[in-house]
Amino acid sequence: MSDAVIIPAKTGLPLNAIASALVPLVLALVVAAVVLALAGYNPFEVYRLLAVESFGSSRRIAATLSSTTPLILTGLATAIAFRAGAFNVGVEGCIFVGGLAAAYVGFTYAGLPGIVLIVMGLAASVIVGALWMLVPGLLKARLDVDEVVTTLMLNFIAISLTAYLVNGPLLAPGSANSATPMVATAARLPRLMPPSTLNIGFIIAVLLLALYWLWGNRTALGFETRLAGLNARFATAQGIDVPMLIIKMMLLSGAIGGLAGGIHALGTVGRFVSGFSPGYGFTGIAVALLGRGTAPGMFLAALLFGALATSGATIQLFSDVPIEIVDILQGMIMIFAVARFGWIFARRRRVA
Amino acid sequence: MTEPTTGMDPNIRLGASNVTRRFGSVVANDGVDFKAERGTVHAIVGGNGAGKSTLMRILQGMDRPDEGFVLVDGVPTVFLGPADAFDRGIGMVHQEFMLVPGLTLLENLVLAKEPTDKLGRIDHKAALEAAHHLEKLAGVTLDWHVLEQDAPVHVRQIVEILRLLYRGADVLILDEPTAVLAPAQVNEVIALLGKLRSEGRTIIFISHKLDEVLAVADRITVMRNGRAIGSLERQQASKARLAEMMIGEVVARLELREQKAGAEVLSIEHLDVAGRRQVKLKDFSLAIRSGEIVGIAGVAGNGQDEITGAVTGLIEAESGRIRIGGVDITDASLSVRRAAGLSYLSPDRAAEGLCLQASITDNAIAGHHRASRFCAAGVTRLGAINRHIENLLDRFAVKRGSSALPASSLSGGNQQKVAVARELDGDPKALIACQPTRGVDIRGIAFIHQCLLDYRDRGGAVLLISEELDELLELADRIVVIYGGEVTGEVGRGASDVAEIGRMMLGGKVAA
To answer: Does residue B376 sit at the A interface (CB-CB below 8 Å)?
Structure first.
């Protein structure tokens, strides 16, 4: 690496940007193809199956979009904090606390009308998610405590705390599982294509993605956040209150992470169970990196990981390909996405 | 155009033969021939964007020519990378320092080639010995146990040079080694270069400053528009001849109009600031009126950062009051200060003055972006911003491709013009201008100086902090000299006794 000839970056043609965003995907497909071939499978056949299982019919597409929904939100939550220069890896924890908050509202106030219940439940998930990020935000902004460490640690607390609550005070009566009671039917998010679990949460996620685009490109706050994330000293010298921005963006990031949990609880699961999220928060980091923090990029990245999750679940039924192969493929994409990020980061440090 | 290299001359320690390097449609180096003889100091001069840095990157293995090749000991060579070049004894000190904060100067010196004891631990004693040996060689004395971030800029610069020697380089490529140094330290570095030459080292250095070049170089190569215009022996060279070769045309003279100072704009009373280093600003008072440029002269690190910091609010003042247009801003946030009419041109263009990754437009609008004509209810008005910025950048003659490109695509001089344009946009009440022309070429300097004078004539108040005495003498209506955090004297415009100012800069108080 140290011997590499450093060629100055060409300035961003959109075509170039798209091509370089595809590189991790292509590399991952190639490496996974080698793994598949070595394991005795025909990679093209496997890839064809994956494509069919994720986009082959309207039902499969609905399933894919349903898996995409939480990933759009967690990617968005990561990207918002990252814009301000904070690497929030605590979105996973926000899903847990936000999901439990929404489920609690959903089964406690079961008598209320549906619309009220849904709004209250999602609002609760947003508020709890935001509060969950308050302390790391304050620590980062005021005392320069590394947010990667604090938010990562908070994940463990969130997962264990919610696990305790659903094993004790909030355990469904008569249930042996670590789960809350089911939420009221009225609290369930309306489904878009029954019997698929695809629900209006997907529409909320896409709307938020559009708002994110507007915020990043058309608002003064989005502008200030971008400058603060790129060069905090510059932003400060221009009169921007960078610590305050970091706190705001960490809260917003937590709010969206909490909402991801709320939508997952009211839309897909119908309650809160221990082991509620299969790592949506962490996949969200990969979504944000692969999508380069742009709204269209993150939509496509979330769709990709959503498709892998859906097809991975069913591919075992139609072939002898083990689900682990899909996990390997997903892991490869993440590694290449993060490696590219590391390269950008190293370049940035060299420039600064 | 250029004669091809014939034969191999081992006396040529490092050179370039017909080197061409293109970046897209831009030809950064166009058939450059260049030869640095063993044991000499070879200077490369030229304006911003002349292709000096590209040539240096090629000579140091960071970049490869599209055509032509590098000569090492007269032999055509292709470097695999900077490490390969270093193995052949060629090292470079970049404009941006490459030292590691959090380590001491000693640790930085030996980094990546630490002397170790039998157990593999760093042998500090051996390291210190090596450091003292280098000190003797270079004729300097340093406190090696200071952390990198606490050391003054010129000390870091010296450590960068010693670091190359420590690791065994005998060819030193220096990219504007004196750009950030005060006159006193410039002489030290110049002496250091002379000393190293007498030790048989080969030195190639880039500079904008012709005085230094003439003081130390044996041979001078002038670059312009990516070409080596010519090489002169020291005896053939003069400041006028070099300037003519560099610019190719005459620089407009500054237009200085009669001063019409008005009401007091910026007033600093009995300011005490605890510095980040040993220096503490003590009981500093200064009043600047509308239509006046007041310069602060002093060797770097004698309280300039503390004055700037307290006025801008980046450093907290211990006591004293600062007012702008009668409004007390001593404890206000920077955004409140800016709203009160304060503007601040940072001395550190790359890290604070600009956001290099953001677009030129973003850089030019930052700080003004919440003004009502650019922003309604939190939503930016892109059309109004683009129109305004295009107009602004044209007025400040910023040479650019598209304003949507990142600021890093501009040459250093044009980057600085963007920063100056932004800070003067909307005619603030007062401007704190720190090192306004650092790393800018002659033409750019003249332009920026004229901008500052025009602003003064429009009624602006300027606090000018510069390490270029020439700049202060040219622009300032008054010069206040500081040393060790205290004022040691003041001179008016037209004071030509530079030696006297120099004496005050080193602490000698003027007799009353």
So the answer is: no
